[in-house]
């Protein structure tokens, strides 16, 4: 799948963002190895810590659908009514993404538009990461 298409889907996911407290709307599109794509948005809560990021929404949707092999993710975020910024995944989301991928291959696209984006590997964003091999028997 082309980067542009995944970004377009992330913008689609962002339409459902529920962020009445921060007014920072985020969408994510997670590409699985089998070609399927899971969309996510941030979902805030009146009890602030109970909110969830767009990336984890997409990740948990994928896992709950039996998809455990991930190729990359596109993220679009920005304040409501303003242009998107290059929105990097938070530390917790980086760790969640780490679980079901090869961090040296998994790509993270941070996009302002379909044409304007940064692309890095998860390993670059989360070096020396703690993964399943450390704890598997
Ligand atoms: N947020 C995300 O959904 N993903 C990110 O990569 C950064 C932050 C959300 C969490 C919260 O709802 C809002 O953006 C402001 O932090």
Lateral arrangement of strands in the main beta sheet: 2-1-3-4-5
| Average of the residue pLDDT scores | 97
Number of helices: 4
**Share of helix, binned:** 25-40%
The unreliable regions are none
Descriptive account of the structure:
This protein is α+β, with helices and mostly antiparallel strands. It has helices at 3-14, 54-64, 91-98, 122-125; strands at residues 24-32, 37-41, 70-79, 107-111, 117-121. Strands 2-1-3-4-5 form a 5-stranded mixed sheet. The chain is globular and about 45 Å long. The mean pLDDT is 97. The chain binds tetrahydrodeoxyuridine.
Outline the secondary-structure elements:
Blueprint: H1 3-14, E1 24-32, E2 37-41, H2 54-64, E3 70-79, H3 91-98, E4 107-111, E5 117-121, H4 122-125
Parallel strand pairs: 3-4
Antiparallel strand pairs: 1-2, 1-3, 4-5
Bound molecules: tetrahydrodeoxyuridine.
Tetrahydrodeoxyuridine is lined by residues 19, 22, 24, 26, 42, 44, 51, 53-55, 75, 77, 87, 89-90, 93.
Short description:
The chain is 26% helix and 25% strand. It has 137 residues and is α+β, with helices and mostly antiparallel strands.
What would the keywords be for this entry?
4 helices; alpha+beta; binds tetrahydrodeoxyuridine; 26% helix; 137 residues; globular; single chain
């Amino acid at each position: 799948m082309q980067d542009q298409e995944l970004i377009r889907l992330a913008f689609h996911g962002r339409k459902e963002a529920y962020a009445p407290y921060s007014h920072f709307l985020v969408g994510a599109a997670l590409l699985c190895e089998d070609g399927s794509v899971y969309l996510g948005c941030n979902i805030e809560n009146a009890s602030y810590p109970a909110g969830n990021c767009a990336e984890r929404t997409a990740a948990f949707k994928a896992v709950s659908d039996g998809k455990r092999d991930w190729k990359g993710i596109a993220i679009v975020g920005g304040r409501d009514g303003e242009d998107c910024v290059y929105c990097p995944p938070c530390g917790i989301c980086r760790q969640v993404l780490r679980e079901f991928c090869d961090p040296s291959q998994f790509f993270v696209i941070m996009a302002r538009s379909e044409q304007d984006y940064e692309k890095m590997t998860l390993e670059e964003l989360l070096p020396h990461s703690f993964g399943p091999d450390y704890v598997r028997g």
